[in-house]
Amino acid sequence: MKLSQVLHRQHIGFMFKKHWVVQGKRVPIDSGVEDHLKQKGIPVVDALEFVKEKPEPRDRIEIVGPYKTPIPLDNSHPDYKERPCFTLKNTTVLLEGISQAQVLTKTIIAEDKLPQRIEELADLPAPKAIHKGVKQVILNANVFDCEQKKLPKKKDPARPAYNFPRILGITDRRRNIILTNKLLQLVEKSNDVEVTQNKYVLNDVESLSVFDKENDLIQFQDVSNILVTSEKPLKHDLNESDIPFIEIPDMYPVKHTVTLPPQHFYSESSQYPIRPSVTKKHPHTTWLHFNGTEVSNIYETPVTPVQILGRSLTHAFTVATAYAKQLYGEDVKDLPEPIHLNCIQTDGQRFHFGVLELKTLNLDGTDGVKNVWYCKNDLKLYDSCRYLSGMPVLENYNPKVYGYINAFYNC
């Protein structure tokens, strides 16, 4: 039945509502008792004044709970500094990508070039059982996993207002975790015990690097989704005489700190995630995940391939710099010996391989000693992995990618 005023008149809830409206507007009737009491000399006190509570100073009670009360972010905060620090986090990228990363880290690039030892190890054939296991890992990460969560909304540029049905599936974060950990497990199973016993594998460890560049204080905060450490420092035999390097570009009029937000709450010391007393503390290979749902520009524009490449360089620089400052102190400039670090970044399908040779932390200008970045980018592990006509299908598997992963582990 359609709700109408006639129906509301017969509704008991409507009746009570109107009744309270009438009763709430009633005015007390003056009975003359107050005047009669005043004639008798009896004082009359307002009841509201009588029951009003007097404010008394009370001590603050500290309640014990599962979390500590956060310290307010003001001048009294222990991490507050007057000097701003330009900060790059693991969920943001540089505006100019690899070019800006070169300027910030004072690095020259050997593009499409890796150390000779890695190339030789990558060319060694692997057993068919290994590649069969890699294919199974890819299917497990993309098809067979049981996670069912809402995936990002689909958008049609021609119809921006159209709402597609929401898709449930495996998130990019879950897919990358399964893929990289299982691939590393396959590499460890195919190697000798002597090689694997000399390494540690850590997940989701944070590195922090603070440095000065041209009177600006800069901080890199990054997370290694997988960090492989070794008992001995990593060393590469690098022949730089016949390599055409990409020199540090001139970004004028853009400043090197563009899109790095300044912060006043920070720590002035770098942090390497492993204590100096640990035997297998030396960084060997760091794995970095590119999750499209988590990494973005600060202006909410899509991340470009050039920015993804710059993320690899800044990530490797952060881990290597934090390790160098743990060895030689916060004020070190030119390192007594270069520090080498392998880096692998993936979005679950494309892989970027890089080797950083850290030589100096004197990052002012473009003259003098420079750091070197060897890289081989954009190698696809496969073209497609999905259900096709109800059957799981993996198309165009590339065995070369596993060869480089195995070479990085064994170099």
Low-confidence stretches: none
Q: What fraction of the residues are assigned to beta strands by DSSP?
A: 25-35%
Number of helices: 11
Q: Indicate the mean pLDDT.
A: 90
Largest beta sheet, briefly?
9 strands, mixed
General description of the model:
29% of the residues lie in helices and 25% in strands. It has eleven helices and 13 strands. Strands 1, 2, 5, 6, 7, 8, 9, 10 and 11 form a nine-stranded mixed β-sheet that branches. α5 (98-105) packs parallel to α10 (305-328) and α7 runs antiparallel to α8. The N and C termini lie far apart (80 Å).
Write the layout of secondary structure elements.
Elements: H1 5-9, H2 12-24, H3 33-39, H4 47-51, E1 80-88, H5 98-105, E2 107-111, H6 116-122, H7 128-144, E3 149-150, E4 168-169, H8 172-189, H9 193-196, E5 199-213, E6 216-230, E7 262-265, E8 282-289, H10 305-328, E9 334-346, E10 350-360, E11 371-380, E12 384-388, E13 391-395, H11 399-410
Parallel strand pairs: 1-6, 2-11, 8-9
Antiparallel strand pairs: 1-7, 3-4, 5-6, 6-8, 9-10, 10-11, 12-13
